[in-house]
Design goal:
- By secondary structure, the protein is α+β, with helices and mostly antiparallel strands.
- Helix 16 (about 310-320) runs parallel beside helix 18 (about 350-365) and helix 25 crosses helix 29.
- The radius of gyration is 31 Å and the shape is globular.
- The chain starts with 10 loop residues before the first strand and ends with a strand.
């Protein structure tokens, strides 16, 4: 039940241990599906790296990309695309084979019918499998589909009832396959362009494509994408402009229409600069540039919300347009500056500044003085990370650390060196491993880390921290980036993953010869991540609560963990199980560890792998027995370990503490934070949230020697409480229409009595209780004072969140009570009728 979010080793050419810091990777950059690059007027660039919206879990490394290829981001579809409104036949087809042969056997009307009855996922699979038979996308087949699309478009009803999405998707895939396999697929002539354009013109000649509905949005985003795949962006500038100009916040009720608008920003406007016709058209009519600037400025309110990507994408595209031609620059240049000036750093609008500035520097760098973006990383560092301390070979750059906190971090890092060397038993730095100096970028919170870190340090930010280095490069300076968490007292100065990330740096200098690619040439993530966890927890004298919970499950054999890679392992297998495997091997078989490291330090990764892979299953049984002892307490750190369970009832979370003390002493204090700015020092509190969402509940326990431990868990509440005014009656036990009484309390075994007068015509009485602490049962009686022995309706769940609904009550006085199963206080009672 306990959940501790984790750092991720994501990145383009980067990992937590080491990598080449040559890329600038945005937090929101999404990989464009392959057809986005299908037919271009210039060289085809690889897709932008994939990322999500700020996870702290594991993701695999990726190849580095230059800033030119990042910034365009794709809003994740709010609903799966698998069916995308396909006809009922698609449900049976989903279980059938979906191969090129299924399409190759059909032509003309038969092919069209088969496409329309297929699932969208089936057609999407041809991106990868279509290369087996590119001939299925020969122009004659594409023409048949384009003709069918025109027929369907003529009667477009604002949904996919005619299978338009499948037809459009087939054409998208066809352009992609023909681009990559032009000989096998055959040439595409202007006849196909004319046929596709005619079909799209037919659809846009109607009015239903303007419907602000999810049904239309699912179709429209694919249609917009096709305008890019077919390389006819210049022809549809008016459509793009209308979609941007027509957007307003009412679209949030139709997530698929939001996705369709983002499709304009992500595909044709981002890729269109490669098309000379589009660049010429933009120079002749730059009104689309004005629309982008207006969109970026007028919709800054999206920033920080689920649709923020639209605003940053508008800034991306605008800055990119500034470098497409002198005519476009003349229009875009002052607008780029206007957008930058509208989004000051260290404000909620800052993401728009950062994305726009990065793209302006790349595509229109000659104007960086005008924009004020020359040496952008240095500018951002001076504003966002102003607090600095040189700590030996480490430079600490922090957003919010005080001088005392910087000193605390420095002292922790200095002390960790000796702990690490005692564990690794190394003989000093590996010869020709460089990057002896390291910069720490420490942000105040996850939001600012996500906003700024990628543009300063070149790391991916879909994680909880990252180390970027190439120890084989004599000119490389290592960078390790992280952020603070308000509840986190386990790490020095509340810097999340400080000691974990520093272990990766040390491991790369003292244990792992070469760069990241070399170091990752064998399955060794059990060691790389397990060591970072082991040193981090061991050095801080903390219990890895996640690892202890996993040990009790006996999920993996040691021989299985030895094969860990980022590709075959999830976050749980990489981190808690990595910790367990490293701890077991260090405690039980240190000679094997040294034999492995001897080979790794020499750059002989196959040899190091052979050391532990050659063990086979010989240690599996002993590892399994060790897990039992570990989970039973043998692996707990001395002092307190914070443990708790949570239960959710509506908007109220009830926490049940079950912490343990290892060794001498006893736990004497409990402090809870609920992730919404509130806290409690009760041992088993309940807390009611004001808004639905996910929150971090963290428990810090303190023993009688002053030792502390903190454990977080994520809770999700779906129903926010209704805030009602205080009941106006003078008597504090009198309820009324749509009102509440706060601060109700009683000691165990006693009852808090209330009453309410219901006028004639009342159809429903709803009584609810929430907030406060303890357990209070709610009772209702129509005729006399309600109690546990006299009631006609009751709510008796654990905690203080209770609800009773009485239908068609008669007029008159009705009676309520809260019976204290345990002491309760701070409870709010509400009546609605």
């Amino acid at each position: 039940m306990l959940l501790r979010t984790r750092l991720s080793m994501l990145a383009a050419g980067v990992a937590a241990c080491c990598a080449t810091a040559t890329a600038v990777l945005p937090a929101q950059a999404f990989a464009a599906p392959p057809a986005a690059e299908a037919v271009t007027a210039g060289p085809v660039a690889p897709a932008a790296p994939t990322a999500t919206t700020g996870s702290e879990d594991l993701a695999e490394p990726a190849a580095p990309l230059p800033p030119a290829l990042i910034g365009a981001t794709r809003l994740a579809d709010p609903a799966a695309e698998a069916e995308a409104g396909a006809p009922a036949l698609s449900k049976s087809l989903a279980a059938q084979a979906c191969t090129p042969a299924d399409f190759a056997a059909r032509t003309g009307a038969d092919l069209v019918a088969f496409i329309k009855s297929s699932t969208v996922d089936c057609i999407k699979s041809l991106y990868s499998s279509g290369s087996a038979d590119p001939a299925i996308f020969k122009q004659s087949r594409m023409l048949s589909v384009a003709t069918a699309l025109k027929d369907a478009a003529a009667g477009y009803t604002g949904d996919n009832s005619a299978g338009i999405t499948q037809l459009v998707k087939y054409l998208q895939v066809g352009y992609y396959i023909q681009f990559h396999y032009p000989v096998a697929a055959g040439a595409y002539t202007p006849a196909l362009t004319d046929a596709v354009t005619s079909a799209l013109d037919t659809l846009f000649a109607g009015t239903r494509w303007r419907d602000v509905t999810d049904d239309n949005g699912r179709v429209l985003k694919e249609v917009v994408w096709l305008t890019d795949s077919a390389n006819v962006q210049a022809h549809y500038m008016g459509v793009y402009k209308r979609m941007l100009d027509g957007f307003d916040n009412s679209y949030s009720a139709s997530p698929q229409m939001v996705s369709a608008v983002n499709s304009v920003l992500f595909y044709p406007l981002w890729e269109g600069y490669r098309n000379k016709d589009f660049v010429r058209a933009l120079a002749a009519d730059p009104s689309l540039i004005n629309s982008l600037a207006d969109f970026a400025i007028n919709h800054r309110d999206l920033l920080g919300g689920p649709n923020a990507v639209l605003d940053t994408n508008a800034g991306n595209d605008l800055a990119r347009f500034a470098g497409t031609s002198p005519a476009a620059e003349a229009v875009a240049k002052p607008l780029v500056k206007k957008v930058l000036d509208s989004a000051p750093l260290l404000t909620p609008h800052a993401p728009l500044y950062v994305y726009t500035a990065v793209q302006a520097n790349w595509y229109n760098n000659s104007q960086c003085s005008y924009y004020g973006t020359c040496d952008l990383p240095a500018k951002l560092t001076s504003v966002v990370l102003p607090n600095q301390l040189v700590c030996d070979n480490r430079t600490l750059q922090a957003q919010a650390l005080s001088a005392a906190e910087l000193a605390t971090v420095c002292a922790s890092l200095r002390g960790q060196d000796a702990f690490f060397h005692n564990v690794a038993k190394d003989n000093g730095p590996i010869p020709n491993q460089y990057a002896k100096n390291v910069t720490f970028g420490i942000f105040a919170n996850k939001t600012d880390y996500t906003t700024y870190s990628w543009a300063i340090f070149g790391n991916d930010t879909d994680n909880g921290g990252q180390t970027v280095m190439d120890a084989s490069d004599p000119n490389n300076r290592a960078v390790t980036v992280m952020y603070q968490k308000a509840w986190n007292v386990n790490d020095p100065a509340r810097v999340w993953n400080l000691n974990h990330e520093y272990t990766h740096y040390l491991d790369s200098i003292y244990n792992l010869k070469g760069n990241y690619t070399t170091q990752s040439s064998v399955p060794n993530k059990w060691w790389v991540e397990g060591l970072a966890e082991y040193v981090s927890y061991g050095y801080r004298g903390a219990t890895d609560v996640d690892a202890m919970a996993q040990a009790a499950k006996h999920t993996y054999k040691l021989s299985t963990l030895f094969q860990n890679t980022y590709a075959n392992s999830d976050s749980t297998r990489i981190y808690p199980w990595g910790y367990l495997s490293v701890r077991y091997m260090l405690e039980k078989h240190p000679a094997d560890i040294q034999a492995m490291l001897q080979r790794f330090r020499a750059g002989d990764y196959p040899g190091g792998y052979a050391v532990y892979n050659g063990l086979g299953t010989s240690y599996d049984a002993d590892f399994d027995a060790w897990l039992t002892a570990c989970a039973a307490g043998a692996c707990y750190a001395a002092g307190p370990t914070s443990l708790f369970d949570t239960s959710v009832n509506g908007a109220t979370v009830t926490a049940t503490e079950r912490s343990v003390q290892t060794g001498p002493g006893r736990i004497t204090a409990w402090h809870w934070t609920f992730g919404d700015g509130t806290s409690s020092d009760e041992r088993n509190p309940s807390h009611t949230y004001a808004a639905a969402g996910s929150y971090t509940v963290a428990l810090t326990t303190t023993d009688d020697t002053g030792r502390t431990a903190t454990t977080p868990a994520t809770v999700t509440v779906k129903d926010a409480p209704v805030v009602l005014p205080t009941c106006p009656e003078q008597r504090t036990d009198a309820m009324g229409r749509n009102c509440s009484r706060t601060g109700r309390a009683a000691t165990a075994g006693n009852t808090d009595y209330l009453y309410v007068y219901l006028p004639a015509g009342t159809t429903t009485l709803k009584v609810t209780t929430s907030g406060g602490t303890g357990t209070a049962h709610l009772y209702y009686n129509a005729d006399t004072w309600a109690s546990p022995t006299a009631f006609t309706a009751s709510s008796t769940g654990t905690g203080t969140t209770q609800a009773i609904t009485v239908t068609n009550p008669t007029a008159g006085y009705r009676y309520l009570s809260l019976h204290a199963v345990t002491d309760f206080s701070g409870v709010t009672v509400s009546t609605e009728f």
